[in-house]
Design brief:
The protein has 99 residues and is α+β, with helices and mostly antiparallel strands. The protein is built from three helices and two strands. It has one domain. Helix 1 crosses helix 2. The longest helix is centred in the last third of the chain and has 23 residues.
């Protein structure tokens, strides 16, 4: 369950960066708002244990992961939703689409 939660949160972070920049990694578009500049490590303490996440950053330092500010209030709902999806056998692609 801990690994599933870490993977889902990592996908949320990556999706947030893609949306912020207007382009996927390596994608060349005219709508691009900036460029990626690697990752930094961030620990997140949950009921499932401590998760080490790789938070993406952009060159200008403007991207902020809203996940960490909102996470304290929504952890219970997120854990319940992930547990329900796991029990029902939902694929990781569907989990990604849902989150």
């Amino acid at each position: 369950m801990k690994a599933l939660m870490k993977e889902a949160l990592q996908e949320v972070l990556e999706g947030g960066m893609t949306e912020f920049l207007g382009a996927a990694p390596g994608e060349r578009t005219e709508a691009r708002n900036g460029y990626r500049a690697g990752y930094y490590s961030r620990s997140l303490v949950t009921r499932l244990g401590k998760l080490e996440l790789r938070v993406p950053r952009d060159r200008n330092g403007e991207f902020s992961a809203a996940l960490f500010e909102r996470y304290a209030g929504s952890e219970k709902a997120l854990v319940a939703a992930l547990a329900k999806m796991y029990v029902q056998g939902v694929s990781t692609r569907k989990v990604k689409a849902i989150t």
